[in-house]
Amino acid sequence: MPRTLQAEKLTAQIAIVLVASGSTEQEAHRVASNLVMANLCGHDSHGVGMLPRYVDAVLEGGLTPNASVKVNLDIGTMLSLDGQRGYGQIVGEQAMQLGIARAKQHGSCIMILGHAHHLGRIGHFAEMAVAQGLVSLHFVNVLSRPVVAPWGGGDGRFGTNPCCIGVPLKGAEHFILDFATSRVAQGKMRVAYNQGIQVEPGTLIDEHGHPTTEPGVVVVPQSNGLLGALMTFGEYKGYGMAVACELLGGALSGGGTWHKPADPTVRAVLNGMLTILIDPARLGTQGVFEQEALEFVHWLQAGPVAPGFEAVQIAGEPERATRIRRETEGISVDDQTWQEIVNAGHKVGVSVPH
Asked: How far is it, in rounded angstroms, from Cα 25 to Cα 29?
């Protein structure tokens, strides 16, 4: 049976393991809070279930606790940053704080961040920007086991390569579009596998390139040690976006792209990110922007609701509704995921309650 924990208690338990892995208490709490926030928003794929992989990455040397972002270039409107394999939840926030400050000063900022360990939910960084009245665009690549097949391909060649866009809406909840370019996130396959459920047709191919609904094909090795792959969303359109994220988030950031055979023993997940921040107040269209953005959203939501739906929503609304519900009801963690968290704690000498 899954267990249900309140966010505060879950954060504290995850932080204990992170401290034992080498993080300061401050860093451990920030990373744990970020993971739990992903769970609160309904993105369990980026939540506390990532902890076992983080612990493995620290132990293998692919993730460096207490690392800070390094500034390689700062000309005001452009920043070149290196995450130095630090926790993405830490170096990502540090990078965004620098970028936001430059955008507020100059009107815009183009920022690249390379060599960050798993950045987690990219929507968090867009939320940081829109809270300051900024538009933000994020293109991210993933250096880990290649789990997504190109359109027309029969095996994994790149990562889930997320894209995110945040737009502030005056007097209303902001627009936060955050999506993997695969049809679903890799972490959602881990969650489905741990829960013992099948996934929708068209989501996966097996190790032979054939369609399947079994999430285990991208979680555990199959025949001959091979793995299957996720499909991109929207056929060639999602594939094109994934390639753009690899070129912009990976190549342009200096963090690198994926072009080698996978090593299944490596647990680190590195991200590169291109971020573009724009201050609408400096473009001379602030008034029109605020009015037109709200009128368009109102126009969308004033239309008839299709059968099977409760309302017309914009990106960001489902996450906010889930957060409100889970803050009250708690966060459910399945038995397999919890056992993996317990095992991760044992690896670094701490006991997580069963």
From this structure: 6
CA-based max dimension of the chain: 61
User: For residue 47, what are its two tokens?
Assistant: 């939540």
Contact 232, 151 (CB under 8 A): yes
Residue 61's Cβ-count burial label (10 Å; 0-12, 13-18, 19+) is exposed
> Mean pLDDT over residues 311-334, rounded?
96
Please check the confidence at residue 314 and state whether its pLDDT lies above 90.
yes
Residue listed under structure tokens 């270039």 = 73
pLDDT score, position 49: 94
What is the reported pLDDT for 221?
A: 87
Supply the DSSP string of 120-184, one letter for each residue. Answer: --THHHHHHHHTTT-EEEEEEEEESS--BPPTT-SS--B----EEEEE--TTSPPEEEEE-SBSS
Q: Provide the CB-side half-sphere exposure for 97 (13 A, CA).
A: 9
pLDDT of residue 353: 80
Q: What is the distance between the alpha carbons of residues 199 and 101, in angstroms, rounded to a whole number? A: 42
Q: Does domain 183-231 have CATH number 3.30.60.50?
A: yes
- Kindly give, in sequence order, each residue whose CB lies less than 8 Å from that of residue 9, ignoring residues fewer than 6 positions away: none
Q: CATH code for 1-66+320-354?
A: 1.10.1530.10
pTM of the prediction? 0.94
Fold of 69-182+237-292: Ribosomal Protein S8; Chain: A, domain 1 (3.30.1370)
- Rounded CA gap, 164 and 132, in Å? 17
SS3 267: coil
The tens digit of pLDDT for each residue in 264-273 reads 789 999 999 9
